[in-house]
Description:
By secondary structure, this protein is α/β, with parallel strands linked by helices. It has helices at about 10-40, 165-170, 190-195, 215-225, 245-265, 275-290, 305-310, 340-350, 360-365, 385-390, 395-410, 415-435, 445-455, 465-480, 480-490, 495-510; strands spanning about 40-45, 50-55, 65-70, 70-80, 85-90, 100-105, 110, 120, 140, 180, 205-210, 235-240, 270-275, 325-335, 355, 375.
Amino acid sequence: MEIMTDTTPEKEQMKTFLDGTFKTMDAVLDDQEAELRDREIGTVTYVGYGIVQVSGLPTIRSDEVVLFPENLQGLVFNIDPDEIGVILLGHSEHLSAGAEVRRTGRILDVPVGESLIGRVVDAQGRPLDNGGVIRTVKRLPVEQEAPPVMARDPVTVPLQTGIKVIDALFPIGRGQRELIVGDRQTGKTAIALDAIINQAGKDVLCIYCTIGKKASDTAKVIADLKQYKAMSYTTVVVATAEDPPGLQFIAPYAATSMAEYFIAQGRDVLIIYDDLTSHARAYRELSLLLRRPPGREAFPGDIFYIHSRLLERSTHLRKDLGGGSLTSLPIVETEAQDISGYIPTNLISITDGQLYLSPRLFQKGILPAIDVGKSVSRVGGKAQLPAYRAVAGDVRISYSQFEELETFSRFGTRLDDATRKVLDRGWRLREILKQPQYKPIPVAEQVAAILAVTSGQFDAVAVEDIRTAEDKLRKDVAENQAGFCSRISEGEKFSDKDREAIVCVARETAVCFRKEPERADS
């Protein structure tokens, strides 16, 4: 019996004919759309600060780039029945009502590629340094969907910042989103810069995106990155306070697109958003000028979405999708230590933890001024090196207990021996966690310094000598414990033999500084 199939020559011929017909129709429609687009010329009806209203573009699409006279670009933001709201991507002193507006037929995109490494660019990828023209062969849309859940892998590899209090107590993993939050002038940018400087030789690319900062502050950051040889693996995306709010708004999305080019190739990227408070203000300004409905605290109702769709793009991709990671450290400013403010609350709920910087600690000279009680990392502990877990596993709890006892001890002078011992060790731990800016510390030296205090070897060292003793200990470990340093850096287990060796070095170091411990009532 012959089996009938659907693959007869006649049907194959018909299928080929239909496919060709559909392709021809698509080409005709594309040509008609292009012709219609070329014929469409809109008119500026209103010019405001950073925004314009346009009429006469019936087939315009959202997020499409439009062109004004003198090559000024704009981004379609609102599409209303009678008018189109456009945010300007440049200064508009020469623009006035009645000017022509032309469609470009493309959505906003930025150049991406290796040529951007080591360069300073604006939010559209145009060079701002003296490095010449940036030549790239690929562009990516500024707005892209975040990777779906099934495209993500767990965060398992640590991203070392070189800062003891962070790497030991609030570790960050590659692919994590860790918020840096605090009042003005508390050292938020300093932490971000130290994290960038510490990536030297670790095969991690860095992108620093400044939003709404003064040009002088941005210039200082760039100068510091150059001084510490960090620009060779860093891209700086600049949108200063002098730039139009449209450029400030698109800057973090553009910087993220630049990073996504590298993570698709399997590379690890660290991105800093400094800061998202200014980003939210720029968006509020644009939205209210375009008469978008305000919500809580006069912010537009979708203020949460502008940050969630940005930070959700940070992830660790599966190996079959490249295996790269994008770690983000967004910065947000609080007012009068109000960590429960609207924007900080939004960002805390989006991110995987926060580092809270306290003005009180900053004024006391406890730097970095990270408040141990209000800071947390919800992911990084799973990516933390084994040596940290062995040495600093209970440091956070004991440090919090010390701070409570310290507050209580101010009300009286008669303390029992157990309380006095906790206070003595807590003061030394606080000193050991202090760290100057621009001096990231290798992993093994951090572990040795923390172990010297938690094991009690530095109990007899005066508090004012702790920093000097730490420097000597770190030097001895770096020079005489090369095997230990390499094993810790490579993520090997912290063995009892390693512990004994470091305790022995710490004991010998303490002998040089041994004094009577401070009394709690002194």
